[in-house]
Every structure is written in C-alpha cells, then in structure tokens.
Backbone:
C-alpha cells in the first residue's frame, strides 16, 4: 500500500469527523488499484468507528469492497502517517 493523500474532514461545523485516505494498492488478484477509503472518528473514545469504513476503487467505483474487512488496515495506515501529515 502506497499512501498518496491523507486528509481530515468534518460534515459541517459540528458534524462527525472522518479521515479520507487515498492510496495505491495491489489487490488480492495482483491488480494495481487506486483506492479511496473514509472512516469516521468515534465520539465516545476519540478512536475510530470500524463499522463506518468505506472503500472504493477510484477508477472502478462499481466494484464493491468490504470496508469492515479493510478497516483495521486503513486505521493502521492513518495512525502510521498521522504525525507526518498533520504535525
């Protein structure tokens, strides 16, 4: 996984915060894909809401990807790259 862009957003002024992560990824079949994932912050513990992870192939958004199975990997990459991106 090669990270291309990591950003933080809010849905409106007081809305739910979420990260977006754009990355290149070789899928399970070896196909190179440009991916976009979003995941919400959890209001309770300031962690992540694993159930809110959404993942699409930017070039083929009609292909479904299970965000719940990708969420741990997405969170790991956000935490790994957070300091270099936002500090």
Residues:
């Amino acid at each position: 996984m090669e990270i291309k862009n990591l950003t933080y957003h809010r849905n409106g002024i007081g809305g739910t915060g979420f990260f977006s992560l754009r990355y290149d990824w070789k899928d399970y079949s070896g196909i190179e894909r440009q991916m976009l994932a979003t995941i919400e912050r959890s209001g309770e513990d300031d962690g992540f809401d694993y159930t809110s992870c959404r993942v699409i192939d930017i070039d083929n958004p009609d292909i479904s990807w299970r965000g719940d199975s990708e969420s741990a990997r997405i969170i790991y990459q956000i935490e790994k790259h957070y300091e270099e991106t936002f500090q």
